Amino acid sequence: MRTVHGLRLRRSRAYSMAAAFVAVVTATAVAGCGASSDETSGSGEQTTLVFAGFGGAIADAEAEAFFKPFEKETGIKVNYTNAPDWGQYTAAIQAGDTKWDVLAIDAQADDLEKYFEKLDCTIISCNQILDYSNVTDYSTIVYTYAAALCYNRAGLNGKEPTSWADFFDLKKFPGKRVIQNTSGNRINLLVGAMMATGATPETVTPFDLNRAFAELDKVKGSMMVTDGQPATTQAVLGGEGVMGTCQDSQVAAVDPDLKTMGMMWNGHVAGGAAIQIAKGSKNVAAAQKLIAYMTSAEHNAELSYHLVAAPSNKTVLDKANPKWSNWYATGMTDVQSIQYPWPYVRQNGTKIQDAFTAWIAG
């Protein structure tokens, strides 16, 4: 039975200031002290943040739940772009070419101070956020999610996979596997490979890469590679592939009743969607405000009314949209769950990325 904190939920839509009022206060402050504000640049132009996220249904939902009302309240505009891979991001930071202000990215390094600005907990309610292992001085989470084996019902002729071993069994379940070659999903696939070879949630890490890639080799001749979660979901939905690894929110956005697709929750990877401020951002103060807004008790649960996304703010878990209660990873008490292994990935991410890239190319 799946329950979610005895959910009895209500919706909150409180916006505290009009943009015009902020603009008046800003103009007064600038005139009084000669300094630029968060809402306008030094030239008097509107401040614009570049937010790099996962795209697809998540981008649309975050715009409605957060970015549009945030701009209305503060006057700070948010432009959305797809998040870079970790290698692309670190190369840009090292070159001093910071294109982003706020990112949703899975960090693959332990020395986070080199890559992100420190979060200001006098602005952000850091102590209200769920205790996930990717919540640090430089990173927090906006919502929680589950990544699981997804499949096309017609493509499997009515048969349903029941474990990760089925993903790698082409004889029992013939058809193309959709392999999403992105930082976070490489980890999900390796978790699946380890589970398929007998690992338990407690022994999944450290990865035995030889063992994991030997399992992945079983489907290498029958795979299609995608570069993001929206493409993966669409490939399985459309039947181009019969199985893949999908994030709950993306599937629910296109097939909420699971008529075309199915989700195999046993052994799912439970995660918290990380958010950070890019090192070298020219709009750090405005970025702090955006993160504070997205994770606040006042606004955090609003995302669940646009997307399958359980709140990250532990004070509003009971305000999440009850429509999705059976989808929330936090409520899946009857199946095996593995929390995304952030500490391990931060220490070993580059090695894993290089090994996975070589496997794809080989």
UniProtKB/TrEMBL annotation:
It is found in: Periplasm. GO terms for biological process: thiamine transport. This is ABC transporter substrate-binding protein. Its main location: periplasm. The lineage of its organism: Bacteria, Bacillati, Actinomycetota, Actinomycetes, Streptosporangiales. Keywords: Periplasm, Signal, Transport. InterPro entries: SBP. It comes from the Bacteria. SUPFAM superfamilies: Periplasmic binding protein-like II (SSF53850). Residues 1-31 form the signal peptide. GO terms for molecular function: thiamine binding; thiamine pyrophosphate binding. It holds the Pfam family SBP_bac_8. GO terms for cellular component: outer membrane-bounded periplasmic space.
